[in-house]
Structure formats: C-alpha cells, structure tokens
Structure prediction request, 379 residues.
Amino acid sequence: MGKHSSGFLRSFFRNLLIILNIVAIVWLALCYVASFTPPASVRYLALMSLTVPFALAANFLFVIIWLFSRRKWWALLSVLALVFCRQMVPAVFGYHIFRQNDWSKTESSFKLMSWNVHAMGTFNNPNEKAYARGVMEAIKRESPDVLCLPEFAMSADSGKRVYPQKIMAENGYRYFRFNMDNGYGPHIWIGTAIFSRYPIVNYKAHQLSPYIYLVAADVQVNGNVVRIGMMHLQSFGLSDEDKAVIEEVKQEKNSESIAKSRSFIWKFNEAYIRRAAEAEKARVILDSSPYPVIVCGDFNDLPYSYTYRTIRGAHADAFAERGIGFGRTYNQIIPTLRIDHIFYSAEQINIKAFETKYSQFSDHSPVMANFELMRDTTN
Prediction:
C-alpha cells in the first residue's frame, strides 16, 4: 500500500510538472506572438508583454528542474521554446557582466544621454528647485555630448527660461532645440529638448498623435551626420492613486485591491493601441532617413512589446549589446520596467559603452551610451 501510494504521488507530481511546463511554454509563445500582433487586432493580447521576463524565467526554471530529475530529456520542452524565442533574452536581461565599457573620447565618438526628467521637478512642489538642481548636477557629472530630455519643462516666458541657459552654460552646449508637447498651466511648457556640443544642421518635429511627437535632429559629428530621433510615447495614464493601488495589490493581495486593479486592464489596452499606432508612424519616418539613426526616449513600453519591436526594426538595442541585469529605467511598481530605450544603426555606428544610472530626482533613470561613427555618413 505504501509503495503504491508513493508511486501514485510521484506520477501525480511528474504529470503536474509536465502540465505546468506546457503552460509556461504556451505563456512564452503568447508573449512572442504579442510582439508581432497589432494590439488593435487582438484585444488584450498586448498585455502579455508585461510578463515577458517572468515567462522567460519560468521556462529557464523548468530546464533546471528537469535537468535535476530522472527524465532529463523533458528539459528539451523549454529549451526548444527558449531557442525559438532567443532574441527576447538579451533584450530583457543583460548578461554583459564581464564586458568592459569604453567611455574614451575620439574624433568620431560621442556620448549620448536620454532621460525623462519628469518636468524638472515641476510635479514635485514645493521641492521643484531641489529636483531641478539634482537633475542638472547629474547631467554635469555625466557630461554627455548630446543630451535628449523627454518631459523637459521650461517657462513659457522666453525671458525666464533658466533651466536651458544653465544646462548649456554648465556643460558647454552650443545648440539647443525644444518641441512643446503640452502645457502645465499657462506659464510652463512641457516637451522634448535636445542639447548638443555638435552642430544641429537640421531639425523637425513629426506629430504622431495629439501631444506626441517624434523629434528628429541631424547632428554633425566632425563632418559626419547622424539623425537622432527622440520620442515620449503614450503613457499608461496612471495617476498617483492608481500607482498606490498597484502597490497595495503587491503588498496585501486582498480581494478588494485586486478587484480595483482589474479596472486598469481597459486603460492599459487602450494605451497599447495608441502607442502601437504612434510606433508605426515613427517607423516610417525613421526608415526615410538618409543618415544612420539613433532613436531614444521614453517609449512607455517594455522589451519585446509590439511598440518596442516596431520602433527597433532592424536597428540594434544598446542595452541588448552592452546592458547588465534587467536595466530598470522606471523607478516605480516592479523592477523589470525598462521602458526607456536607445536603438541605433549598427552597420554604421559602433557602440563602445552603455549604462543606466538610478536617480532620485525623476521617476525615470537616465540611459547613456558612447557611440562611434564607423564610416562617412555625409551622404
């Protein structure tokens, strides 16, 4: 009787593991399909992109479990799934622990920083000036040659634009462009800014949707031109109260807080649909560039979402080439939210270094890369 019960339990748990393993594979497959499927065509499928890191982790876990069991060949289930979805792995988790970053300066290299600066502390009253000063000090420490700032704020009065003047003076920037997305009351403009030590020979803002723009600046680096595209795409529209509910779900997981969190699903899905449309328009504009491209900013979407894959196209992901860990850029909710990205034309641009640095002065962390132009890009 004892042996029979023991055999039954072993068989039960083995079959349960197989079923759970198949569920994990289907889960990963849905994440993969979601990255190629326009969110408007299959509603709510896009939400799977939020779970990509966990789907990958689940399949890695099953590989390990089976390798330590008597039926090691079952590990092939998840191994094959991971091989098929292998492009997801470096985009989600950076493994370049032993690769040395090269921040050295050459005639054809330049350091770029992209940072959503959360309106320079405008939303942090009464501590606005302290947050703005913290942002500017961080920029001065890193000293990027090209600085891209989504959600930058400045006075609508041209005589009171202190932040652009200070950033230019403290960092030796000679060129500044700003595109207004919207206003914060009658006296503050919020939009996308670019500062550069190199000449900006052409500049244009392409509207992707109401209040959303792709800002394209042609920057001339020692005679070579590179087109830098900056975007701040549609957000999930979460208020501080919404974020508090999410934190409540994480910590308490009671029925009331979970019921509240379900109300976010519709909001999330609508945001995915809008971002997808913006990404598709941006892709067409970026593909028309006669120069090598660097596209950066706050895309409000995770690696291997439809938005991420559409904007990236054939370009390389700076994080995937040089990143470490999950590369979190959004400093709230969960530690897997890498929603600020830098993509580049790998055939003409070489990446020498990449880093994400936490900052307490914004809800986002800055992402930085050191690039080197590999050939003449004047034509």
